[in-house]
Amino acid sequence: MDAPILVLAPHGRDAEVIRLVLGEVGMTVRLCADLSAVCDGLAREVTALVLSEGALGAGMEPLIACLEAQPPWSDLPVLVLTARGNRSASKARWAQFQRLGNVTLLDPPLHAEALQSAAQSAARTRQRQYRTRTLLDDIERANDALERRVAERTQALQTEMRERQKAEEALQQAQKMEAVGQLTGGIAHDFNNLLQVMLGNLHMLRSMLRADDPLLRHVAMAVTAGDRAAALTRHLLAFARRQPLTPQSLDMNALVTAMSGLLQRSVGESIQVEAVLAAGLWRTWADANQVESALLNLAINARDAMPDGGHLRVETSNAILDETVSDPQGDILPGRYVLLRITDSGVGMPPDVLERAFEPFFTTKPIGQGTGLGLSQLYGFARQSGGHAAIQSQPGRGTTVSLYLPQHDGVDGADKPVPISEAEPQDQSRNDETILVVEDEALVLMLWVETLEGQGYHVLQAAHPQAAVQILESDAAIDLLVTDVGLPGMTGRDLAILARGLRPGLKVLFVTGYAHYAALEPDSLEPGTRMLSKPVGVDTLQITVRGMLDGDSA
Fold it and tell me: Which residues are registered as beta bridge partners of 315?
């Protein structure tokens, strides 16, 4: 092997003779002048150590220290040439030899073949030690690799567990929001029916009172309160994603520009409003009124968060979301969106408030100063529109609310519908038509029948779809079907499809407390069909019915 044999034999020509004898069998020998040179040599790879007994003495402690410091795999062979004529085996002499470790004693007279044989045996022993070292190194590397793989897998499992926990929390949040949405939507639906009865009767009562009647003031206050309650139910329906929407192809930059003056007046002079509008902004498909309402509400929220003034930034941009984007409130479909982002420099929200910001009725404002429905309405509108909303906030560092609405490639060239309040009946004298009213809420049915009969119409009524089907299958003349959307056993849309199968071309007016099982959006309605959202004013119902009978069908 390449590693040399160290030789320390300071007396006479012993060292040179040993080098020549071992060189004959191809061994490399390095002669050392003293024990210090031997210790230096042991710092490198060595096959064996040959010492004459005369080289050992009181100064051998450094050598003993080097031999004791060998790594666990190493047991360096040491060949000791004992002194001539010193064959006594005193305990002190044997103890000195044993301190050398793996020692072999070679007594004189020493023949060359005996020295060569002992050295070759020591070399074979040393080779096995070096192979052991290699195996130990391989085992250590394998162990290190295994530990790395275990650490990596452990980290991967921890990451997976965190992601799973995050997904479970997101699912729980989504399920909670969905459950709350179903609850609020159902409450709003039932409440709208009650409001329909109360406001409808108040409107009728108001129309019967003289202008100077003292009761008129009380009726007006009751109507105002009812209108506020109706606005509250609209907020609930927005959160529940069951409000009727009127989406259109919308230029967000134009909308923000048009509202800039209103936003500045709403937040006051102490707050600087900055609009940053992206060039080449895509069009979006959304209800413009809802976007305007959301933007105004967010500006007012920002104003309340900046009592000493500050900066409000309204920004538009294009956004492309992929599968890596997550939303604690639910799934986000990858795609192209138009982003409306509102950032204020206000007080910000702590984490516990931020976590509940989208929940309905949650508010940090004092009692009487907020319903807690503003952000929940924004959330519901965004989700119902096919987008989503997100909030980022830190205490003392302001709040950013992002509204993502889907891109729309088409151009909205359709004429905007004429507001119902501005429509005028073409002929108030044509009151010989027959109207079929279908409503499962008895008080609402009574109100609508009385309202329409008061206008001179012939009214047929049905409290459930089966009764309506029997009337539709009869020979009775029917000019218009007025039906609630949410009916027991059959949706209003299904009833309308069945009715038009029996009576082709029949005009249908849907009235809904919220977008129930059927997806009834104004842009999806067929010709000869209109939709009104409860609570419906008596005047609005009368004008809409008259317009549809006269041919004004949206």
Answer: 276, 341
